[in-house]
Amino acid sequence: MKDINMYRLMIVDDEPSAREYLREIIEKKCSVYKVIAEAENGRDALKQIKQCVPDLILTDIKMPVMGGLELIEEIQNSYPEIKCILITGFQEFEYAQKAIRMGVCEYVLKPVNPNDLKRLMERMEGQLEQKYYEERISLIKDLSNPLVEPDNKRIEHFFEEGTYYAMLIRQKGAPRRYHVQNGIAICSLPSEKIFVYGRDEQETLYLVAEKYVIHCDFRQYVEEIYEKFRKKEGYTTCVLYQRGFSIQEFSSIIRMLYKKLDRSIVIGKDQIIELSMLDVIQENTKKDADSDENNCMERIRYYIKYGREKKLSAEIGQLFEVWKQEEQSQFNVENQIYYLYQTLNYEYKRLKEFPELLYALDEAFAEVMNLNELKEFVLQTIEQYFITEKYEEDREDEKDRLLDKILIYLNTHIQESISLGDICRQFGVSQTSLYRLFRQKVQKTFSGYLTDLRIKKAKEIMRECPDLYIKDIAERVGYEDQFYFSRIFHSIEGISPSEYMERNSN
């Protein structure tokens, strides 16, 4: 919901008394609108539009020089985002019907009844709010692209606050290398805390206007939000930018936040990190060239080359201990494991299976809760992909029975918070085996299947129980946070849960 007096209104009428009458109604009965300009004809209005950029135009149909219908036609061609209301008498109504039927404008009849106008303006508020957020999404996309020249007038209109603060929150590990890019969407909470959906469903970027944090330190504000995320499954990494910035700086600030985040995630560790100005010019220098990690990697390369399989497993275990002690970032851990797999692939020539292994590894980084789970996964994949081929010996009927049991379990426990690790422990299977099972039999990842199942169940509930609150529906399909549920629903269905319920209510 926008702040009071947020929607900008222009009144166009050749009679000063008529303009004064309309202004009076707006000021007394329509508090979310502010009259920012008046014009005596369509041509005068077009000149002013370039300067004041109204959200809504209230125009008479009959005026000298340029009438209301001509004005609306010009607006549709040059400023399609601007909404229009046509003031028309009974005599002119037939003349105006074409524009009304085409949906290019709403109308109110003369003489204008204050209550009729009030109801119409309330109805227009919903359309303007939708347009407001669509424009913000468009601007966010433009601002995220360094090749696009920002439109400062649009920015000033749709991001009215001069100074913003930013933070980036991520649950679990860095985004999958092979993830499907989410479309950008934004939402504004009542306190104008804008959050932008990140690269996947585990990531949220917050923009907060200065006036909403002026009463406290921004770090304190961040910690309040951070604690809510920590209650969810997995570990949470938060990167914040303590200094206020203009929305025109959005692109550069966001790139810095993402870079810092991706190089700072430590698997299994909750943390809040402040982005400093030094981060603009320097890289992460945590890793020591002469560290124990390098010594481990040297020994691992030796054991791979000469087929020392038992020593290889033990040394990989030692490598994970080093990473744990040094709190190495996922960025570094991931690169080293990919290098390890490439070295193994070169020696054992598993070219056909190698792409699937990379997908499995990608999934593991996204789902594991700590380094011990990741170590287990790595050792299992090395055994299964490079040392033995026992996974090929599994009987297909056994796989089918196991999958049936898992699917039944997911359906009957859909209201619970279920993770990949939970299913592995419940059915005594490794993450690798479960990943392969879903890839082979369902053609989806485990998390992808579970998400689709939750959304399918949610849609069934919406159709059967249209009076339920979104919060209750979210809880019935395993989501504690209704905003997170709405986000996932929108990314899959292309509309919000409330829109879906409205469409299926009849």
Overview of the structural elements:
This protein is of the alpha/beta class and 506 residues long. It folds into four domains: 7-134, 3-Layer(aba) Sandwich (Rossmann fold), CATH 3.40.50; 161-280, Alpha-Beta Plaits (2-Layer Sandwich); 292-392; 396-503, Homeodomain-like (Arc Repressor Mutant, subunit A, Orthogonal Bundle). 54% of the residues lie in helices and 13% in strands. The chain contains 20 helices and eleven strands. It has helices spanning 16-29, 42-52, 68-78, 90-101, 114-144, 152-158, 218-230, 250-262, 292-305, 309-326, 330-348, 354-367, 371-387, 396-412, 420-427, 431-441, 446-464, 470-476, 482-493, 497-503; strands spanning 7-12, 33-39, 56-60, 83-88, 106-109, 164-171, 186-188, 193-197, 203-209, 236-245, 271-275. The strands form two sheets. Strands 7-8-9-6-10-11 form a six-stranded mixed sheet, sandwiched between helices. The chain has a five-stranded parallel sheet with strand order 2-1-3-4-5, with helices on both faces. Strand 8 (193-197) and strand 9 form a beta hairpin. Residues 280-290 and 389-394 have low confidence and may be disordered.
